[in-house]
Amino acid sequence: MKTRALTSFAGMTFFAVLGIRAQTPERKTQEQIMTFDAPDASGGTYPQSVNPRGEVTGYYYASNAYHGFVRDKDGSITTFDAGPTALYTYPLSINPRGEITGAYDDASEVHGFVRAADGAITTIDAGPHGTEAIGINPSGEITGFTFEANIGYHGFVRDKDGTITTFDADSPFTMPTSINPSGEITGLTAFLNSTRTHGFVREKDGAITTFDGPNSAIPTSETIPLGISSRGEITGYYLDDRDVPRGFLRAPDGAITTFEVPGAGQSGQPSGTVPSSINPSGNITGSYSDVNFRTHGFVRDSDGTITTFDAPGAGTIDTYPQSINPRGEITGSYLDASGVHGFVRKPDHHERSKDESDDEAESPE
Q: Residue 48: inside a domain, yes or no?
């Protein structure tokens, strides 16, 4: 997806152009995994986020454009566009209230948006040259980044009242990737024209700490945080000296544990282990590529146990988990001979949350 920027038209609210709600064909081809397609999806269905209630948001391709969707836990799907001028709509995150944030592209720029549970859509612009909203927490705080020509990317946080604060970590290349219920934000930062990226965590009060994976001595190393839990644990990946992605878990005190999925390839990208999301119990989901460069899903329990899986029909092709909720439900996409489809995976008994308060940690304040 191309990036240009996000700026905020105060009080500018749209209603979705599309409001199609349909009970789409759904097949339970394995005990744990339900697969689905958005209505009329001709070029793939790409789920991005699942909330504690099991509602899923993402985007799909049809009629030469990308459109948004939200899937209820009963399987019904509502499709939408982020306003009458939207050419492409990319929902990326959904909170427990069913509020969705993401980005859309019109003829002139990329903008952020937030969609209320009733379907009302508000545009977000954090700067004049393009904005992408990436994550939304239970209270409605939103994070993302905005582009500034000849400078780089700046992070932003939007309070639930619409107030936007921009910030930089180490440099004017700051890209938040996730926000937790406490308002803590994680993401990556790098200097312009640099081949090296660092992770960061921003506290609610604005204090920022940067960090690196165990590869910090490598001039071209990358550290890419992708998820932060309600407890402040951060997951993501870093590149080792062979350019192989390896997973990490960073504790709130800064201690980093590295891990890789058994069977992950060791030949550089796209092999390796790529965690994408973490829930309040510390369960992590993501993908890994094997020695044949086929991509599979995994879930890592808080005790370090790793379970691998493929979406039904994926066979020897690819499975890409994107998000895990407090109950251990995972959503993502998979590729088979007919195209790209969505899935929701229910957890095994041993994978279920060990902390009954996890749902409360992600519930609206």
A: no
